[in-house]
Amino acid sequence: MTDKYTQLVSHGLGKDVAKRLGLPQPVALRRYQPGAPLVTGPVLVNGDSAGADDVATALLGWGLDVRRNALPKEKLGAIILVLDAVQHPRDLAKPVLTAGTSLRDLAANARVVTISRTSGSARTPASAAARQGIDGLLRSLAKELRAGATANGILLDDDLATTSPSSLGALRFFLSGRSAYVDGQFLTVRSTSGMVPTDSEKPLAGKVAVVTGAARGIGAAIARTLHRDGATIVAVDIPAAGDHLAAVANEVRGTALQLDISRDDAGHRIIDHAVERHGRLDIVVHNAGITRDRLLANMDEGRWQSVIAVNIAAQLSINEALLASKHFKDAPRIVSVASTSGIAGNRGQTNYGASKGGVIGMVRSTAALMEPFGGTINAVAPGFIETEMTAKMPFAIREAARRLNSLKQGGQPQDVAEAISFLASDAAGGISGEVLRVCGQQLVGA
Ligand code: NAI
Q1: What is the pLDDT averaged over residues 233-240?
Q2: Calpha distance 86→95 (Å, rounded)
Q3: 124-153 per-position pLDDT tens digit
Q4: Domains in the chain, please, with CATH?
Q5: What is the pTM of this model?
Q6: Residue 32 needs a FRET pair 20 to 30 A away by CA distance; which of 93, 156, 222, 307 works?
Q7: 209-235 pLDDT, tens digit each
Q8: Residue-level pLDDT at 15
């Protein structure tokens, strides 16, 4: 699953030429395969707090080869930098510089993960400075890593242990091949809800999941990935995509629901179908989306309204029905697909940017409404993903968009699907109202 350029510069003459000309040299990313090891080598846990000891103990419990001090010249699968006790920016030097001496020993596709505290919960300006400093440090480090290695961070509110269920859930996600195209990002854990992740390869077993826009592209990948992880799938798409929809639904042994999600009764149709055919509804993935690009100076009302209707108004209306339903009360999950265009903006996409920024605002606000019954809602914001949509971009623009990120390649639909599957799992129960970018740390914009 690598593009032609990546294949060309990965071996022999192509590799030498790319190196001499200073061209981007992407590597094939380590993606999740059932049965594959969580990491590719020993895991170094840096930091001398009690929270660091607890993390090391938890990792031993997962059967990992854990180090508290690096051995000379040993190739490391991951470095975990536990910075939960820093009180002042000066406290960063020792653990960070110690970790720095091990960076040259990272194996290809290795992981660096920081565990620290949210700056918003700091009690002094110095502590807030130290905590927020980790943000800049981590994002800079992610830009320095090579050979498919990534750096991501976990943020914990003050009263949460480094080994709270969703802290370990996020750690497992970041270490694994599931997060291959997530780089330079943070996940915040705000509660002790959720379950400590086990080694199970079926984290969604027994759950019924609805995926909108499932007939092709990212939606089809989400349906396949959630099914692989144990969920029963309801695949939703417009009637015009009926044949492709039926093929995806058959492949994942789920059911198809032909439905335009912008219809007023869409929420009720989704709930009724899931409950009548499968007896319950646990997960809704709002993936369906459209683009109708034009510069704002040339934008007509039809283009504007249709994008708002499908990409955000439909999600708001379906969520209203879900929140009111007695069938959506057993620690349910909503995951929405936003876009980096809704964060950094994109020329020609004022309508799309408004709709995807809207998804982010909706997710943050709805989190409080889901909380009383143990529900969560989060968004993923994909960057450049290799789909039919991006294949149609003009060559030069496509090549620039594909390479201008820390991993120097586009993401695969599976990468978005893996993040969604994690956020839909019990292990992510303490994470809500978050936006996780799946963009390889895009270098353009925010
Ligand atoms: P796609 O165009 O290949 O697939 C979208 C699917 O949604 C199609 O099957 C379509 O029939 C369905 N759909 C559209 N309107 C619908 C409606 N009213 N009711 C039900 N289904 C409807 O798009 P792709 O690339 O797979 O994108 C999926 C999501 O990811 C979208 O929300 C998109 O905005 C988002 N995204 C994609 C990126 C990319 O690089 N491909 C980047 C960032 C976000």
Answers
A1: 98
A2: 10
A3: 999 999 999 999 999 999 999 999 999 999
A4: 1-30 (no CATH), 34-189 (3.40.50.720), 208-438 (3.40.50.720)
A5: 0.95
A6: 156
A7: 999 999 999 999 999 999 999 999 999
A8: 67
- Residue 174, judged by CB atoms within 10 A of its CB (0-12, 13-18, 19+), counts as buried
Best residue among 259, 273, 355, 389 to mutate for probing ligand 1, ranked by most atoms within 8 Å of CB: 389
Q: Please state, in angstroms and rounded to a whole number, the distance separating the CA atoms of residues 136 and 154.
A: 14
Query: 170 near 62, Cβ under 8 Å?
Result: no
How many A from CA of 420 to the centre of ligand 1? 15
For 69-78, how does the pLDDT look when each residue is reduced to its tens digit (9 = 90+)?
888 889 999 9
3-state secondary structure of 108: strand
Pocket of ligand 1 (CB under 6 A): 212-213, 215-219, 237-238, 241, 260-262, 287-290, 310, 337, 339, 382, 384-385, 387-390
Tell me the CA–centroid distance for residue 219 and ligand 1, in Å: 7
Query: Using one digit for the tens of pLDDT, what is the confidence trace for 373-424?
Result: 999 999 999 999 999 878 888 888 888 889 999 999 999 999 999 999 999 9
Indicate which residue of 5, 32, 181, 352 is catalytic.
352
The number of beta carbons lying within 10 Å of the beta carbon of residue 443 is 14
Atom of ligand 1 nearest to the CA of 241: 11
Among this protein's residues, is 5 annotated catalytic?
no
Q: Are 445 and 343 in contact (CB under 8 A)?
A: yes
